[in-house]
Design goal:
- This protein is mainly β.
- The protein has seven helices and 24 strands.
- Strands 13, 14, 15, 16, 17, 18, 19, 20, 21, 22, 23 and 24 form a twelve-stranded antiparallel beta sheet that branches. An eight-stranded antiparallel β-barrel has the order 2-5-6-8-9-10-11-12.
- α1 packs antiparallel against α7.
- The chain is globular and about 55 Å long.
- The N and C termini lie far apart (69 Å).
Length: 480
Amino acid sequence: MVSVRAVRASAAAVFAVLVAALLPAPAAHAADRTVQGGRLDWGIKSSFQSYVTGPIAKGSWTLSGGAATAGGSQFRFHSAKGSYDPASGGFSAGYTGGVHFVGHKKGGGYELDLTVSRPTVRIAGGAGTLHADMVSKEKGTGKVTTAAQVPLASLNLSGVNMKGGSGPIALTGIPATLTSQGAKAFAGYYTAGTALDPVSLTGDLAAAAAHKPAPDDKDKPGKGKKDEKDKSTGHEKAGRIEDAAVDWGVRRTFREYVSGSIAEGEWKLGSGAQDGGALFRFPEGEGTYDAGKQTLDASFAGSVRFTGKHGLDLTLDKVAVRVKDDKGTLYADVRSKDFDERKAPLVTFAAPGLKPKDDLIALSEAPAKLTADGSKAFGGMYKAGTAMDPVSLAVALDAGAKLPALPDLGSSASPEPKAEKAEPETEKAAASSESGSFPTVPVAVGAAVLLAAAAALLVARGRRTRTADGTDTDETPGSS
């Protein structure tokens, strides 16, 4: 019969072998990893959103730079770029996008005017800070201040171990507190120490770049079937488009309605369409451009289908764009319960002076309005003339011209926030509870997992999970 002492000795030997095999040599140091892609979800302060859009301030907020909404009251910033040190747990990532709040209209302007953009999270030595670019009009005086990367919020990382990650980084529900510098940048609406909304973020870790041989002509972007046509004719067709993409989010409040508690629905992309968070990209544009007449006629790949309760089933397919006389129209094949039309004109937008620069025509976030046919396509939910999401258009006239990158949301390293109530006919942001809890960190730890399993052969320990709940019942800024 094997003795307990022998079993323990064997287990200890196995553990020692795993340690020797998995841990790096003492002199080795894990190289910093590049953070490339990911998102940051943050409501800034939910009660502030409610105040801005409520009956006192009677204001609104708008998004810029590809920022989107997530759930009932969070803003989603995208395209993380930065670095991560697995040895120390140091993390730094900047995100793209912004949100602009206005309220208390007076004359041609607003007394409340605040912009928060380009949030950056820096973590070192177990402490975290959220920085952001701030433009604010001071409460009372109206003085406008612009500051880059203000240390806006302190992040409570109690119980979080950032070391040893090897996969996507994901932090969920990190408690955030307004700093003294943040209070000044927030135009005096809140004092230092005020609880802000919790922060959730992800960051993909890029793999080490591998050397690749230079591609042959047949492998280069823009080559292929189009070039085969060129060879057959002996020259390139005048005015032909090499590549193009159109970005359009349909309407933010419509997306919130679809995924919210009323429709409890979703959308699915097909035929190559891509989701950029705040917009859908319809790629692989083909068509013609006439520089003299300033006209464009292009069709795109991709489809999006919205489904949900109360009979919601709307598909937009075969998107096309035409530009003539400085005016653009976006078309699509539309299928719904009560509407079925091919190449229906959905929205119009201004498109002045479509002139290429470095063989690329770019139109960024052109305001769009719904057409009469578009109103029918949405079942009368929105009237003709209603402002829809802006349209962005990029057209490459040469194979070497590069289209703008789509917002990079990174991997789905953590569950998506549950959508809450949002009303499609109003721009009011739905308020949500401002309770906070200590975060979980689903960071892939690689070898550490196996080491923990080996250690379990020797000893079993009970673990306690620390949580903390807090509420903020502010109704008016400055009352905290």
